[in-house]
Every structure is written in C-alpha cells, then in structure tokens.
Specification:
Elements (H helix, E strand, L loop, with lengths): L2 E6 L4 H10 L8 E8 L2 E8 L2 H7 L10 E7 L14 E2 L5 E9 L2 H10 L11 H10 L4 H11 L2 E9 L6 E6 L4 E5 L2 E5 L11 E4 L5 E5 L2 E5 L5 E2 L4 E2 L15 H7 L1 H9 L3 E2 L2 E2 L8 H5 L3 E6 L1 H18 L3 E5 H4 L10 E7 L5 H12 L3 E6 L5 H5 L2 E4 L12 H21 L4 H22 L2 H11 L4 E6 L2 H17 L2 E6 L16 E5 L6 H12 L4 E7 H10 L2 E5 L7 H19 L18
Parallel strand pairs: 18-19, 18-20, 20-21, 21-22, 23-24, 23-25, 25-26, 26-27
Antiparallel strand pairs: 1-4, 1-10, 2-3, 2-4, 5-6, 6-7, 7-8, 8-12, 9-10, 9-11, 11-15, 12-13, 13-14, 16-17
The structure holds 5-amino-5-deoxy-1-O-phosphono-D-mannitol.
Length: about 600
C-alpha cells in the first residue's frame, strides 16, 4: 500500500526522501513523487513506475534544492496508476502540497462542492480534494485550515502537508492509517512505516487517531482532534538498521526464511522460564480464562492460516470451541461473540484494515481482544486489550515467512499457558512440548539445510501451470499456506484441498503429469495421507511429498519426490513443515524470473478494505 515520508531539517530533503521511499518500496506501489519547498515555491516531481524513474528524473534528488519536503509511493485505488494521479497533489494555486494514505470516502461530494466554487481539479484521485480543501480554508494559518478540513473529510487518512507560506513546517495528520513521527537532532521526520526513517533516528512518536502534529527542524508539537496541544510519549525502536536491509542476500524473502530460527529464539526462549510458559504483562487472569466459553481467531492471508492451525491446536489444548474467521468476513457475519469470548486477532503489520475492523467489532460486542502482532506500536497492537509481540524483526518481503512461524509459536505458547490454567493439558505433555519448543530453532536450521534439494525440485517443477496441495488436519492448513506462497510470488495457479475432499469433486482435475504436493506430516493421519497419494498417483499425478523423517521410508515408496522434516511433538510440526513449502515457492519463483519481493498487484500491508 502507499507509503509516506516527510523531512524537515538542515540537509537537502530530496535525497533523504528518496532514500526513505526506497525503504517503503516493499509495501507495493505503482508510482512515486516528492514535493520540496525550493526557492519560494513548492516544487513537485512525480512519475508512474518504479522509484528509479523518479530518482533519475531529479538526478537522485540533486535537481531540487530545499530542506523541507514530503514524499510518497502510491498504490492506486481511485484513478489508474499515472503521473498525474501520483502524489504529492498540489492545490490549484500551487501553494499547498499533500501526500495521503487511505481513502477519503466523501471525496466526490467535496470535489463537486469545490468545483462549484470554481476550483479546477487535475487528477482522478480522492486525495487531491485534501490539497484543494486546505487551500480553500487557508487564511494565513495552516494548522487552522487543516483543522477545518478534518471536520469535512470522512474515511481513513494519514496526511503529510507542506505549505509555501509556512516553509519551515510540515503538518502530519492521522486517522485509521498509520503515521509516526521521528525525532532527531535538528531534524524531524514523518513516515507511514518506521523502516523509512530508521537510518536517521530510533526516537519515534506513535500518532493516535485524530491527532495532528506540526513539525519544524527544531521540534514537534502534537495536538488532539480539537487542536489543543498535547504531550506525547517518545518511544525507542529497538530494530537494528540492517535488519531492514538485504545484507548480501538476493531477496528479502530468502533472507527472512533463513532468519526464522533466530526469530523463533527471540519469540520463544524468553517465554519459557523454569519449565513454565511466561507471558510478559499478560493481564488475562485465571478466572478470566476459566470464564471463557469460546475462542475466535480472526486474521487475513497467512495470518489466517496460522489461525487455522490454531483452531486444531487450541481446541485440542483447551477443550473449548474455537472458531476461525477471515477478518474481511467477520464483521459482516453477525458473529456470536460476547464477554465470554476471547477474540485473538493475528497480524504481522498490525495495520491490516480488515483485521482492525474485526477487532473493533469484537470489542463492540463485548469480547476481550488479544492481538498477536509483529510491529510494535502498530494500530492493532494499541487498540487490542492484550498484545503478544512476535519479535520477528522487520519483515520486508511481501510474502510473509518469519512472521508466520513466530505467530504460530506465540499461539502455541498462549494455548499451553491457558491450558495449564484450565487443567486441560497433562503435566507430562506440557513439559514435553516446552522441551521440544526449545529444540525447534535448531531443527529448523536442519530443514533449511535442505535448500539445495528443494532448489533442485523447484527446477524440475517450475514449468507447471497448475499445482495442487493436499493434506489433512494441520497438514491441510500447511497446504493452504504453501499454495498461497506459491501463488503470490510465482503466479502459478494453485489450490489446496483437505485430502479427504478430493473424491468429492476435485479429483476430476487430476490428469497425467499434474503436480500434487502432498503434505503428510501429522502422524495420526499418516496412513490416510498415504492412501491419498496412491489415489492421485493412480490418476496420473506426480507427487512431491512432505513428511517427517520417521515416516519418510513409507512415503518414499509411493511418492515421486520426498522432502522430510525432523520429528517433533505434533503441535510443532507445522512450524517445521512450512519451511520447505516457503523454500519451494521461493525457488520456483526464482526459476520463473519473478519479482519475488514485490509481486505484482500486492502490498505488504493492506490498509484498505
Ligand atoms: O499484516 P497481516 O499479517 O495482517 O497481513 C495479512 C495478509 O495480508 C498477509 O499475511 C498476506 O497474505 C501475505 N502476503 C501472505 O504472504
């Protein structure tokens, strides 16, 4: 989705903005632009296409002199990707420049109003209306004009605003779209994502909905929605600068796959102390846990797939009903949720709009909401009643990998913690799972060592135009995740089925040479997994199977190709099983020459409905 960077300080703004925007490229975008106050004017450069096009246009920033400016990467919603629809948008006099993330829902009505007053529009975007409206209300006090605009616009927005008449200040506004402020010596920043400014500062202010900030080179003043001055806490970001860089790897996705053992150590080790699960600042009391009648897990995409694993694991551990819902469906399905329901929302970014909307709906219905989130200080983390961070570090590739495995680990820890309080897990099993969890990172390293084997398999299969995944129980959920990974980065059509469902229709699609990835790690259903492999092979399929080392020999007898993972407790199998599927998707996409970190049409965090 769109990205915003703003800078005010003593250095040349354009190169800083271009650098910041380059760190937001991973979010997905189709055009980019900057507006800089330069020699008495707001100068704008913007272009459809990659950031490099913009950078070339302004000679890496050298072509526009000035020490204050705003920049944007756009992911088109209203109006096709084009030079004119790119941000920043400028008011008709050229006095006001605006960058906007989100959607102005009532823009059509506001546009008609302004047009009736003779204001000319040049773009098809909803965002241009903000620049024109600020100018319409502007009578010498930018903050006051912005305040009046905020009373008129509806929807979601993070805004960066620059005005020719007040060339020493930037205005930042946030509602339902992330925006942070970065504080440095003699310079200040605004950004939609901390990675954009991490090279300059770790001191940040997380803006809340409805807040406005005025940034100058000397300081930042925040205001509430009534434009009364407020004091905000300054937080320190503990991510390493190089965590958001490729560090010698060809792709962020591969780097993040390889980082998983370390990410798991960070997510798990501090939470196992003296043989018990320890959850920091966890306010759900034993009585709260015993009072729960059910659990709902709500999320999107891969986070939803973690939720699906959670359904199997939590039901097994808690002996309470667990429902799992797509966040985009949850709020429209009249969910049966009340004060005895625990709603667990899962989100890497903590900014996914559908998940945020589901969280709010759950709270409105009286449920307690616990969020499993990676990005510290993100909107979902701040609005939930409880947060468990995954501590995976910045995840840049659009295709999530280390966020998935750490979400799963945290969900397992939560399940064990609650089960211990409910008395629904035997002491012996509890201890065994925790012991195995401590071994998981090293076992994952073993799986990662199979990268050459998986690369070879990808070289054999990358030409397939349609690939099926099948599995039962948690292996089905792994199939869904493997299939999503493959689709999003390699553009191969792929579907995942609960293996028992095949004969109810889908098996008709199997013909000579169809590739079926059979996931059969789960011991209790292994024999059934074998039968399904035989079933599709006898209809001509080639089968690439995934199972555990102890089951490998039997699987090898029926499958064409086999990848094994180490044996572990069943609750931990998906954490290992997902890794070969990630690597397979990665290498297939590599063989097909795809843009792995920035797949077409996709954005890292989806902040529109
Ligand atoms: O940031 P979130 O976890 O809320 O994002 C949810 C999905 O958009 C995300 O998992 C998406 O499906 C990934 N691209 C999958 O790799």
């Amino acid at each position: 989705m769109c990205g915003i960077v703003g800078y005010v300080g003593a250095e040349q703004a354009a190169p800083i903005l271009l650098d910041g925007l380059s760190r937001l490229e991973y979010r997905g975008y189709d055009s980019a632009g900057v507006a800089i106050y330069s020699q008495g004017k707001v100068r704008v450069a913007k272009a459809k296409g990659r950031l490099q096009v913009l950078s070339d246009m302004i000679q890496g920033g050298r072509a526009i002199q000035g020490t204050i400016g705003i920049g944007h990467t756009r992911w088109a919603t209203h109006g096709a990707p084009s030079d004119v629809n790119s941000h920043p948008h400028v008011s008709h006099s050229g006095n006001i420049a605006v960058v906007h993330n989100g959607i102005i829902e009532n823009y059509a009505e506001l546009k008609s109003f302004l047009q009736s007053k003779g204001v000319p529009f040049v773009s098809e975007t909803d965002s241009e209306v903000v620049a024109q409206l600020v100018e319409y209300f502007y009578q010498g006090d930018l903050l006051e004009a912005v305040g009046r605009v905020l009373h008129r616009i509806q929807g979601a927005y993070a805004l960066g605003i620059l005005c020719c008449d007040q060339p020493d200040q930037l205005i930042a506004v946030r509602k339902d779209s992330p925006l942070i402020l970065g504080l440095a010596e003699g310079a200040n920043f605004l950004a939609s994502d901390v990675t954009a400014i991490l090279r300059h500062t770790r001191d940040v202010i997380y803006m809340e909905d409805g807040e406005v900030a005025v940034l100058t080179s000397q300081g930042v003043q925040c205001y509430n929605s009534l434009l009364q001055p407020i004091t905000k806490e300054v937080s320190q970001v503990d991510w390493e600068v190089d965590a958001a860089e490729k560090g010698g790897y060809e792709h962020f996705m591969f780097k993040e796959i390889m980082e998983q053992p370390q990410a798991l150590r960070r997510a798990v080790f501090p939470r196992i102390q003296d043989g018990e699960v320890y959850l920091e600042d966890f306010a759900l009391t034993d009585e709260d846990i015993r009072g729960l009648s059910k659990v709902y897990v709500v999320a999107c995409g891969s986070s939803y797939h973690v939720g699906m694993v959670g359904k199997y694991h939590l039901e097994r551990l808690l002996r309470k009903p667990v429902e799992v819902a797509l966040a985009s469906e949850f709020r429209y399905m009249e969910p049966i949720v009340d004060e005895h329901t625990l709603v667990i929302v899962i989100s890497q970014s903590g900014e996914t709009l559908d998940t945020m909307a589901a969280l709010r709906e759950a709270k409105r219905l009286g449920a307690k909401v616990l969020a499993i989130v990676n990005v510290v200080g993100s909107s979902i983390a701040r609005e939930a009643d409880e947060v468990l961070y995954t501590w995976a570090g910045p995840e840049i590739a659009v295709a999530t990998t280390k966020a998935y495995t750490t979400q799963l680990a945290v969900l397992n820890l939560l399940g064990l913690y609650m089960a211990r309080r409910l008395g629904t897990v035997a002491d012996e099993e509890y201890t065994q799972v925790l012991e195995q969890m401590l071994l998981l990172p090293a076992q994952m390293e073993e799986v990662l060592e199979k990268q050459s084997q998986i690369q070879y398999l990808a070289s054999q299969y990358f030409n397939h135009e349609s690939i099926f995944f099948m599995g039962r129980n948690v292996d089905y959920t792994l199939g869904l995740e493997g299939s999503l990974k493959l689709k999003e980065i390699s553009y191969i059509h792929s579907e995942a089925y609960a293996a028992g469902e095949l004969k109810h229709g889908t098996i008709s699609l199997i013909e000579d040479g169809t590739l079926v990835v059979a996931v059969g790690t789960y011991g209790p259903l292994f024999d059934k997994a074998l039968s399904n492999v035989v079933e599709v092979k006898s209809r001509g399929a080639s089968v690439l199977a995934l199972t555990t080392q102890s089951q490998g020999e039997r699987m090898a007898e029926v499958a064409n190709d086999l990848v094994t993972i180490p044996d572990t407790h069943p609750l931990l199998l998906p954490s290992l099983g997902v890794v070969p599927l990630q690597l397979f998707a990665y290498y297939v996409a590599l063989h097909r020459g795809c843009d792995i970190d920035k797949p077409r049409n996709l954005a890292k965090s989806v902040t529109v409905e």
